[in-house]
Write a structure and sequence with these properties.
- By secondary structure, this protein is α+β, with helices and mostly antiparallel strands.
- It has one domain.
- The chain has 1 helix and 2 strands; from the N terminus they run βαβ.
- Strands 1-2 form a two-stranded antiparallel ribbon.
- The two termini are 14 Å apart.
- Pfam families: Peripla_BP_3.
- InterPro entries: LacI/GalR-like_sensor, Peripla_BP_I.
- It comes from Klebsiella michiganensis.
- GO terms for molecular function: DNA binding.
Length: 49
């Protein structure tokens, strides 16, 4: 594609690891409060920016 598009890189591996960790903790203690987890995406600037 011309120009190359600026995109956002999502940390998929880290997201998967955190999801499993949260799931395991929720299964161990179903009454615990819901927790908010936020990952920081990376802006990949290319030619369209």
């Amino acid at each position: 594609m011309t120009p190359p598009l600026t995109t956002i890189h999502q940390p998929k591996d880290e997201l998967g690891e955190l999801a499993i960790d949260v799931l395991i903790h929720r299964m161990a203690d179903p009454g615990q409060k819901q927790q908010r987890v936020q990952l920081t995406p990376e802006l990949v600037v290319r030619g369209s920016a």
